[in-house]
Amino acid sequence: MATATARQEWNAMWPLPFVAMLGVVGSATFAYSSGVFMEAMTTEFGWSRSQFSSAFAVQMVLGLLVLPLVGRFVDRVGPRRIALSGIFVYMLVFSSLGLANGSPGQWLLLGGVQALGVAMVSPPVWVSALVPRFRVSRGMALAIALAGVGVATAIWPIIAALGVETFGWRATFPALAIGWGAIMLPLAWFFLPDPPAEARENPGLRESGSLSYAAALRSSDFILITLAGGIFATVSYGMTLHIVPILHDQGLSLAAAAGLAGLMGICSITGRLGTGFLLDKLPTRPLALVAFLLPVVVSLLLLKGDGNWLEATIAVAILGLSAGAETDIVVYTLSRRFGQTMFASVYAIISALFALFASMGPLLGSILFDRSGNYNLYLTLAIPLVAFAALLMWIVLSPRSGRKAGGLSYSGGTKLT
């Protein structure tokens, strides 16, 4: 059967990447709106900010267990069923946050329940629908879907703030959940496809993916991609969380530093879409090398540390570009290396592990700052770390013919080099 052209793929399924993007936006509601609720709830209940944030920590920990299970179900029954049921679950559990009664134990329980709701509408659910439908133009399709993280960063704090000021925090939780769900249910129903016909009509194809699942997780590709992306996430997220104090310590005013930090969201979306376009046009290997080494430039600019506004702006912009580019490259590589029969499973596990790695970045930056009194040691350490991550991706993307991942032939492996 002849391969469809990029134009034919987009003519047939153009709404799907945008539906997936809106799905990703919804999965990040609590992550990017929680800061708005923090002040109102801690004031009312007399909580510390760490008590408020504990619910998010519980959600992250339980997500490490729940997300891989959801990924397995997506590979078995398809993303459509999981997404439609997940939207209802997410609306229910996110709305339940408005029932907080001031008990720290109850708040932890509500946070734990969030893990299931978030996992059922997480990026692997939405992105997995794109993999079998977009082959020639997969890079741009994935980029549009994953740009939902940047959109969530931009819109949820504003919408949540308007809701809290107008209706109070209790009503805002269900308003956000139901509002997003009311949009997503018809979109998912009409535009999110079932698995391709060949997968439905050939159970052996899907079962072969299940049988090779354990082997895939033991494969060198899985291990190297996890280490490369995890190390990068540690450095990138640590820099992102510390960028305001870094710039402030270097002489910028707090307002100027915070203003520059907002540039990262825009640059992240730009980096994501630009990389998606390039992935469909150029070999993946050199793109990965450049993207993974961008934080080296950021570190060198920040180490100079003379308070130059232009250099600080360039550093922040590159940091945002690199974050968007790295995510595209990792997800694209997973889709090519592990194929549609186990993509959601592998992506879900790697997402959970990346979150664990990323959580260590801010802690590492804080420890090194406390010991040295500045961020120079942290910025210096970031250089060999991302260089090592870039080397690992270079190895993963090296040309190797006839290799298999977990018993399955690579899908489109020649494009990676």
Summarize the structure in words.
With about 425 residues, the chain is an all-alpha fold. It folds into 2 domains: about 15-185, Up-down Bundle (Growth Hormone, Chain: A); about 215-410, MFS general substrate transporter like domains (Growth Hormone, Chain: A), CATH 1.20.1250.20. About 80% of the residues lie in helices and about 0% in strands. It has a two-stranded antiparallel sheet. Strand 1 and strand 2 form a beta hairpin. The model is unreliable at about 200-210 and about 400-415 (pLDDT under 50).
What is the molecular shape? Answer: globular
Low-confidence stretches: 199-211, 401-417
Classify the secondary structure makeup into a structural class: mainly alpha
Give the topology string: H per helix, E per strand. HHHHHHHHHHHHHHHHHHHEE
CATH homologous superfamily placement of the largest domain:
MFS general substrate transporter like domains
How large is the radius of gyration?
Answer: 21 Å
Q: Number of domains in the coordinates? A: 2
Kindly report the CATH topology of the largest domain.
Growth Hormone, Chain: A
**CATH classification, class level of the largest domain:** Mainly Alpha
Strand content: under 5%
Biggest beta sheet attributes: 2 strands, antiparallel
Question: Distance between termini?
Answer: 25 Å
- Strand ordering within the main sheet: 1-2
- Please estimate the helix content: over 70%
